[in-house]
Design goal:
Blueprint (H helix, E strand, L loop, with lengths): L19 E14 L2 E7 L4 E6 L6 H6 L5 E10 L14 E12 L16 H6 L1 H4 L3 H23 L3 E2 L17 E3 L7 E3 L5 H9 L4 E10 L10 E11 L3 H19 L4 E2 L5 E3 H8 L13 E2 L1 H4 L5 H9 L4 E7 L5 H13 L6 E6 L2 E3 L1 H17 L7 E7 L1 H18 L7 E2 L1 E5 L4 E3 L6 E3 L10 H7 L9 E6 L2 E8 L4 H10 L4 H16 L5 E4 L3 H9 L29 H6 L10
Parallel strand pairs: 3-5, 6-9, 11-18, 12-19
Antiparallel strand pairs: 1-2, 1-4, 2-3, 4-5, 7-8, 9-10, 10-24, 13-14, 14-17, 15-16, 15-17, 19-22, 20-21, 22-23, 23-24
Helix pairs in contact: 4-6, 4-16, 5-15, 13-14, 14-15
């Protein structure tokens, strides 16, 4: 028998009436009801109500003990009175009449309370994370994370994937973010890098003859924090498959993700088929390559309608610059002056000159824009967006690259304000046909747009014959409710194509051999066509836990300044350690 308990705090019920039991846990909450003292005892599994009679030898200790002290109690299970039954608690029909109380660990005054869910400053919560993790919602989120990861492993094995671990100390690689570098003590002046992803290793596993690989992989990137991105480290469901096309990846990954979300979705519905949206179509319809398809709003280009119109602000801009476009954002049931003015004020708060609009009522469009462009053009816009009376449409004018982010925000704002978002769904989609390269605005040089190891569409021929900015990659993203879960690609498995792809991005042969020598060698000795994807574990859990911040589903996260306030990292190290590594810290001059 366990020394500390006969039962967990979620197990006792009517079948245990009159049983002598032993429980251990934390003092969650105390209540004094005119002589009788009640304590809710909490462990990892649930709550049990304890009752102390003033005549009990333990009453005085129970009265003095602070919340969050750890105790062990012995007592008898009794039935609660009818008016005291708690139907929301598995143990809500019973309580334990305590005969003996032993204090195992007494708590001092708490810097943050555990009972309840008050909103405390994040830095305080992270500093005392061990207390924060005791709070019900966060505690349950971390349990949910464990359950999801265990289920993922089951599903992957059912689909014939093998789990492998890849190295943590590796070489620096251009993955799109800054590396975390680790100086080598043995090889002074040289550095390891923490992997941004197991990219090269999982491709080498395919070259080694393994057919399906997966890993709950830790990844490390020295980048700024966001609500959906954790600074420093994160975990992903890393997947790679041999002898596959892009469609094979989709056909394998879609059912896996659907199965995971169906298991933990809390009755939310999931779209049956994930639509495939070309990258440029996604930008033009939604203003982003991470569209939230729960919002039933699609933007359209209405430049031709405004060209030569009487609305000179737009028509003159179109004439003066061929790159200027006008986009319309429809707002079903948003045809009130109050709503449109509210959106215009919001746009100004975002640093925009405003947000022009047309309101439709009495079978026609009204407002300054409608008046200036005339009835025919106003009707053309109405028909284009299938608008009715009580609807409106907003307009953005400029160079799309400059207003994409704002247009996406405006679409989301309209959907939120008009309550158009279907909150009871998970809407997945694939974003496909990403550009292989992009122009670096600072250096004016060609850079990889995303993953440098993607196979270009058309192979070597497209790299040799097309403008690099026209080359598309066999790359894809999986997006859910506006959150990018993962990027993936059919990989480049031929050395000649790999060398050419990097040459276009400014890498000479020696650089490629130095950085990717193992992959080049592997490709020379027979490597199958292969591809993969790596959905983010943290983001999957965030969606399933229905929270907006990754730090609510990670046990010990860093803050937004990439600091671990609990362990005080990063921290200084001794002069001896620095000397041992053969490096020198140069202090910044004041």
């Amino acid at each position: 028998m366990n020394e500390y308990r006969t039962h967990k705090c979620n197990e006792l019920g009517l079948d245990n009436i009159d049983n002598s039991v032993k429980l251990s846990g934390w003092v969650h909450r105390k209540r004094d009801h005119g002589g009788l003292l009640f304590i809710d005892l909490r462990d990892n599994f649930g709550l049990t109500q304890l009752v102390f009679d003033p005549d009990s030898e333990s009453f005085n200790d129970a009265e003095k003990i602070r919340n969050e002290s750890v105790v062990m109690v012995k007592g008898k299970v009794i039935r609660r009175s009818e008016d005291a039954i708690n139907k929301n608690l598995p143990t809500g029909e019973v309580e334990v009449y305590v005969k003996k109380l032993e204090i195992l660990s007494e708590a001092e005054d708490l810097p943050i309370p555990v009972f309840g869910e008050p909103d405390y400053p994040e830095d305080l919560r992270l500093k005392y994370r061990f207390l924060d993790l005791r709070r019900e919602t966060l505690h349950n989120n971390i349990i949910l994370r464990s359950e999801i990861i265990n289920f993922i492993r089951e599903v992957m094995k059912e689909n014939d994937f093998l789990e492998f671990q890849t190295p943590i100390l590796t070489a620096s690689s251009p993955e799109g973010a800054r590396d975390f570098l680790i100086p080598s003590r043995i090889h002074k002046g040289k550095f390891y890098a923490l992997p941004q992803a197991p990219q090269q290793f999982k491709q080498l596993l395919m070259a080694s003859g393994f057919d399906r690989y997966f890993q709950i992989a830790p990844c490390f990137r020295d980048e700024d924090a966001r609500a959906d991105r954790s600074p420093g480290e994160f975990y992903q469901l890393d997947i790679e498959m041999s002898f596959v096309t892009q469609e094979d990846i989709f056909d394998t990954v879609e059912p896996i993700l659907r199965k995971i979300f169906e298991k933990f979705s809390r009755d939310k519905k999931i779209n049956k088929k994930f639509p495939k949206i070309p990258f440029h179509d996604s930008l033009s319809k939604y203003g982003t390559d991470k569209p939230d398809l729960r919002i039933p709003i699609e933007m359209k280009d209405v430049t031709e309608i405004f060209k030569g119109s009487g609305f000179k602000i737009f028509s003159d801009s179109i004439v003066n610059d061929n790159n200027v476009r006008v986009w319309g954002i429809p707002a079903k049931k948003g045809g009130s002056r109050a709503f449109c003015d509210k959106m215009n004020s919001w746009a100004i708060e975002q640093g925009q000159p405003g947000l022009g609009y047309i309101i439709y009522k009495d079978k026609k469009g009204v407002g300054p824009i409608a008046k200036n462009i005339g009835e025919n053009r106003t009707s053309e816009i109405k028909n284009l967006f299938s608008l009715d009376d009580s609807d409106s449409v907003f307009f953005i004018c400029g160079i799309p690259d400059n207003f994409l982010s704002f247009s996406a925000s405006a679409r989301k704002r309209i959907g939120t304000e008009l309550k158009l978002i279907n909150e009871d769904r998970y809407e997945f989609c694939w974003i496909v046909d990403y550009p292989m390269y992009e122009l670096n605005k600072d250096t004016k040089k060609i850079d990889f747009s995303h993953n440098p190891f993607s196979m270009p569409k058309g192979g070597l021929e497209s790299l040799e014959s097309l403008n690099p900015l026209e080359v598309k990659a066999q790359q894809y993203d999986i997006v859910c409710n506006g959150i990018e879960l993962s990027s993936g690609a059919i990989r480049n498995h031929r050395p000649d194509i790999l060398v050419k792809a990097f040459e276009i991005a400014g890498y000479d042969l020696k650089e490629v051999e130095d950085k990717f020598g193992a992959m080049l060698d592997a490709f020379k000795y027979g490597t199958p066509p292969h591809g993969g994807i790596a959905p983010g574990i943290d983001r999957i859990v965030m969606l399933l836990a229905d929270v907006d911040n990754l730090r609510e589903v990670i046990a010990f996260p860093m803050n937004q300044q990439a600091q671990d306030l609990l362990m005080n990292a990063p921290s200084g190290v001794s002069e001896e350690q620095i000397k041992d590594l053969g490096i020198k810290i140069i202090k910044k001059k004041e």
